[in-house]
Amino acid sequence: MGTQGNKRLIYFLVFLLIIVPVIVGVVVWHLTRQNCKEGTTVKSTTNPAIYGTEPWTNLRLPKSLMPVHYDITLFPDFYDGNGWFYGNESIELKVKQQTTFIMIHFYYMNITKTELRKNGTNEIIKIKRTFPYKENQFWVIETEEPMRAGLGIVLDLQFDGSLTRAIVGLYKSTYVNSITKERRYLAASKFEPVSARRAFPCFDEPNIKAEYTVRLVHKQEYTALSNMPDMHTSVWQHDPHFKITTFQRSVKMSTYLVCFIVCDFEYLNMIAIPDFVSGAMEHWGLITYRETAMLFDPREASSANKQRVAVVVAHELAHQWFGNIVTMDWWDDLWLNEGFASFMEYFGANKSEPDWEMLSQFLTEDVQPVMITDAGVSSHPIVVDVTNPSQINEVFDSISYSKGSAVIRMLESIMGKQKFFKGIEAYLKAFAWGNAKTENLWNKLGNIEDGLSVRDVMDTWTRQMGLPYINIVFDSKLNKATATQKRFLADKTTKFNENRSPYRYKWYVLLDYITSSSETGKVWIKKQETITFDIPVNPIINKNAWIKFNREQTGFYRVNYPDDVWRNFASELNKNPEIMKDTDKSGLINDALNLARGGYLSYDIALEITTFLDKEYGYLPWKSAIEGLEYIEKMLMGSASWKSHDSEAADWDTMMKRYISATVPQEKIKLLYGMAQTKNIQLLHRYVDYAKNESLIRSQDFFSVLQYIAGNPVGTSIVWNWIRSNWDYLISRKYPEAGSGARGREQALESIKRNIIWVKKNKQIINDWICVCFDQSIFS
C-alpha cells in the first residue's frame, strides 16, 4: 500500500484523532427467501465474560480447523439513498484437530443465521451456542459434540451490515459524472489489514489462505468486479430488476486480498476509486487505486504527479510477488510485504522512466525522511509484536514501508546485486503460494561472507528500533581513524533504557568510504562500540584531501566528523561541487542538518555545508537541504497576521468553484493546497468548516486540508484552536480505532517537547549565522 518531523505538526496530530465507534442496531434483512424461515438464528444465551481463559480470549485463531473454500453471495444496496449490504456464505472447512469450537472474525455486522453441516452428506451438526467476543472480533460457535480430526464440514452464515460507516470494509463511494454533473454511487472494498471481517465473516489472518467463489447482485446498468474474471451474468431470481454475476473460483489467497466492486465505470484491468483510504491496494486480479495515484492528465497534472502514478503502480505490481504469491505469516512481519514493494517500486519506475533517476531518489524519498521518525524513542522495530487488532493497523507506518525498504537497500549494497537477487529468487520460489517469516528470508539469503550470516547482521536492524551514528576521530599523526557507534536520537539529551533492545542498541555496521582520490574501502563494526582502523588519507594531516564515510549513503546510519573536517567539506564543495556524487553530497547535507537538529553539531557548522548550493545543479543535494531548512523555517516562523483584502476573498471563492468543477484528481489536490495559503483569517475559518462538508470535500482529504491550513503561519493557531473545540467531532470521524493511534500520540508528544527545546537552544545561533553570512556576502 502502498509515509516527518515537526514540519508537519498536524500530521502527528492526525494520530490523535481516534474514532470511538457507536454500536447501532441495523435492520435484519434475509438475502434469500429460503433463509427467511424462523428458527435459523442461534442466539447467545450465555455471558461470555466468564470464559476469560477460553480460546477466544487469544488474539490468534487456533489451527484446529482451516477453510478450504468460501462461496459468497453479496448484495450491496447503495441505490436510491440506501446504504446496506446483505450476504450469505458457505465455507468449506477441514478439521485438523478435534474441537468443539469454531471462531470466525466479524466486525460491525449482524450475523443472522449460523448452521453447520457435514460436507458431502449435508448432515446437520448440532450447535450448542453462539456468541460474539468483541475484544478479538470473534463470532464463537460451540457444537454439541466434538468434531473429529479429518472431518470436512460446511459453515453456513447469513449476515448484513452498513455501507456508510467508514471507507474500509465494503462501503459506498460517490462521485460526480463530469459530463452530466449527476451524483453517482458505487460499492467498493478495502480490506487490508483486518477489514474483510467488516464485509463477510471470515478467518481474517494472512496465513489462513483459501479459494473463493464470489457472486455479486447488482442493477442491470452496473458492472460487478472481483478478483477473477466473471463466468456469467443472469437475472437474479429474487428480483428481475437486478442481475447476479458469478466469478471464477479464485486462486488461493489471504482474506485481505479479496475485492468486491459494483460500479458504472468503464474499465480495463485496473480501477480508480473516488473514495479510497489508501494510495492503492494490490488485490489479486483487481488492483484498486485512489484517483490521484492512477489517473493522469498530461495537460493539467505535473511531472511530479506523473512520477507518483508510476511509483504507485510499480509498488502494487511488486506486491503480486511480495505479498500475494509470498505473504507474510503474520502482521509482525508486514515489512516483508511493504518493505519489499517499497524497495522494488524504484526498479519498476526506473525501468519505465530512466531519466527520472529513481534509484537515486530512493535516498531522499524514503531513507532520509524515515531516519527522522526512527530517531525518536517512541519508534518501533521493523519486526514488531502485535497483540491486539488495533495494533495491526498501527504497524502500517513509515517504519514498515520506508525503513523496511531502506535496510533492504543497505543489504543489497552489502551483498552485491547479483548475490542478493539470487537469494531473493530462492526465497520467492521456496514460499510461493504460502507464507513466510523474516527468518525464512535470512535463511535463503545465507551468508554475507564466511562466518558472517545475513541473519546475524540484519536482526540488529529489524529487531530493534532506531539507528546509529558513527562518530569519526582521526589520528593526529598516522593514517588511522577511530569509529564509535552510538544510538542516534532526535535529541541527544533524551534518556533511554538500553535494556529495551536485545542488542543494547548496537548494530552490525559496514562502514565504507570514498576518498578525494577515488580510493574506496570498508570495515565492519560488529556490534562493538569502538574500532580503530587504517585509512588511505587523513584530512587532519592533509587539509586538501577528504574521506567521506557511508559511500553513496547506502547505510542506514549517520556519520559525524570533527568540526574542522566538516568545514573542510564545505570549503572543498564551494571550490568544486563536482568532487563527489550527488548521493554523497545529499548525505553530507542531511547528516549535518540532522546532527545539528539533535544537538550533536553546532548549527553554524551544519549550515556552512549548504553554502555551495548556489553552484549546485543536482536535485538530491537541493532536496536534502530544503527538507532540513524547512524544519528551521517552521520552528522560527512568526505568527503575525496579515490584512485581508476583498480581492483575495474573491480569488479564494474562484478557487473553490474551480475545485468543485475540476475533474483531474491532481488538480483538485493542488487547489485544496492553494486555498490553504490565503492570509485572510476569515477565509481559513470558512475553509475548515467547508472541509467538514463531505458533499464539498471528500472525507479522505479532510485531514490533508487541516494539514495544509496548519502549514500556513496564519492557519496554525486556527487549526489548533479548532481541534480543541471540535475534539468530539474528530473522535467520531477518525479511522482507525483508538488503539491504532497510541504510538502516534507518543510520537506527537515527543516531537512537540523536542521542538520546544530546539527553539530555545538554536534560535539565536541560527540568527547570528544568517547575519554573518549576509555581512560577508556569502549568498551574493
TrEMBL record:
InterPro entries linked to this entry: Aminopeptidase_N-like_N, Aminopeptidase_N-like_N_sf, ERAP1-like_C_dom, M1_APN-typ, Peptidase_M1, Peptidase_M1_aminopeptidases, Peptidase_M1_dom, Peptidase_M4/M1_CTD_sf
Subcellular location: Cell membrane
Family annotation (CDD domains): M1_APN-Q_like (cd09601)
Entry's transmembrane regions: 9-31
Enzyme Commission number: 3.4.11.-
Lineage, opening ranks: Eukaryota, Metazoa, Spiralia, Lophotrochozoa, Mollusca
Natural source organism: Tegillarca granosa
ERAP1-like C-terminal domain boundaries: 546-640, 648-736
Membrane topology note: Single-pass type II membrane protein
Similarity comment text for this entry: Belongs to the peptidase M1 family.
Enzyme class: hydrolase
Cofactor requirement: Zn(2+)
Keywords on record: Aminopeptidase, Calcium, Cell membrane, Disulfide bond, Glycoprotein, Hydrolase, Membrane, Metal-binding, Metalloprotease, Protease, Signal-anchor, Transmembrane, Transmembrane helix, Zinc
Keyword Plastid: no
Domain Peptidase M1 membrane alanine aminopeptidase intervals: 265-461
Assembly and interaction partners: Homodimer; disulfide-linked.
Catalytic activity line of the entry: Release of N-terminal glutamate (and to a lesser extent aspartate) from a peptide
Entry protein name: Aminopeptidase
Pfam families: ERAP1_C, Peptidase_M1, Peptidase_M1_N
Aminopeptidase N-like N-terminal domain residues: 67-257
Cofactor details (free text): Binds 1 zinc ion per subunit.
